[in-house]
Design goal:
With 96 residues, the chain is an alpha+beta fold. It has helices at 8-17, 64-73, 78-86; strands at 6-7, 21-24, 32-36, 50-54, 61-62. The model has no long low-confidence stretch (mean pLDDT 84).
Amino acid sequence: MPPQALRFSSLVNRLKLIGVKVVFSPPAPEGSVWLFGKGEGILPWARGPMYPMQTHEPDDLIPAKMVEKILKLLDIKEEEQFQFWAIQEHGTQASI
């Protein structure tokens, strides 16, 4: 599946499915979410590069370019990016 805009809840769920650690506040600052890649990290819950972003409403659309940027900054390998985009969602709304 080619890159496309995703709902925030879908983005978070897909990232979790490919092994990205998602940390909401606390310990992330209020209104923020930290996304940790899969490499080795320095913090107890960190496993790699970190991408901090603001929390959004579950149905807020995240542009495809931003999703691609997040995947790149988290050092997600091409094979895992393919898996990320191939995930098919079922049901009405994915939960965070």
